[in-house]
Amino acid sequence: MLQKISLGGWVESSIYETAPIGPQDQGKFFNQVVSFWYGKGSRKLLNYLKGAELFLGRHPRGHWEKREIDMDLLYYGECILNRRPGPIIPHPLAAVRGFVMVPFAEIYPDFCDPLLGKPIKKILEELKNSGAEVEFKKVETDDE
């Protein structure tokens, strides 16, 4: 679905299996970061992501509860947006989540977080050194 709206520049990380955040009786999560060019603005992209979640069968539940799919808008280039209504960009928790930084660092280690002014590889290194590391298992696919 995302490739259909991409204007090019498609890059995707490997898929990683991690323990859930929140209630632990949810089973493992699968995490991946994709990057692509999009020209209609961050609000339209976020609306598309939320619509795609519904289309793919996501059911409304409480915060941190299990879900069929979850798509987040992490960054929109070097854009910084922090006003409502509208998306908060960069995603407020992206830089503190190992399950985001590991796949992101795989595809764009030198991308600089516009708020922190640090490359993703440095953010990931600091996360690992802080003891906040999440256990990861790279999912093997037929493509590998």
How much of the sequence is in beta strands? 5-15%
Describe the global form: globular
| Parts with pLDDT < 50 across at least 5 consecutive residues | none
In whole angstroms, how far apart are the ends? Answer: 22 Å
Cα gyration radius (Å): 15 Å
Q: If you average the pLDDT, what whole number results? A: 90
Largest sheet: 3 strands, antiparallel
User: From the helix content, strand content and strand pairing, which structural class follows?
Assistant: alpha+beta
CATH architecture: 2-Layer Sandwich
Number of helices: 4
Give a count of the beta strands, DSSP E runs of length 2 or more. 7
CATH class category:
Alpha Beta
CATH superfamily: 7,8-Dihydro-6-hydroxymethylpterin-pyrophosphokinase HPPK
**Sequence of secondary-structure elements:** HEEEEHHEEHE
Chart the SSEs and their pairings.
Elements: H1 2-5, E1 11-12, E2 16-18, E3 29-31, E4 34-35, H2 42-55, H3 98-107, E5 112-113, E6 118-119, H4 120-130, E7 137-138
Antiparallel strand pairs: 1-4, 2-3, 2-7, 5-6
Structure, explained:
This protein has a single domain (2-138), classed as 7,8-Dihydro-6-hydroxymethylpterin-pyrophosphokinase HPPK (Alpha-Beta Plaits, 2-Layer Sandwich), CATH 3.30.70. By secondary structure, the chain is α+β, with helices and mostly antiparallel strands. The strands form three sheets. A three-stranded antiparallel sheet has the order 3-2-7. A two-stranded antiparallel ribbon has the order 1-4. The protein is built from four helices and seven strands, in the order αββββααββαβ. This is 2-amino-4-hydroxy-6-hydroxymethyldihydropteridine pyrophosphokinase. Catalyzes the transfer of pyrophosphate from adenosine triphosphate (ATP) to 6-hydroxymethyl-7,8-dihydropterin, an enzymatic step in folate biosynthesis pathway. Belongs to the HPPK family. Keywords: ATP-binding, Folate biosynthesis, Kinase, Nucleotide-binding, Transferase.
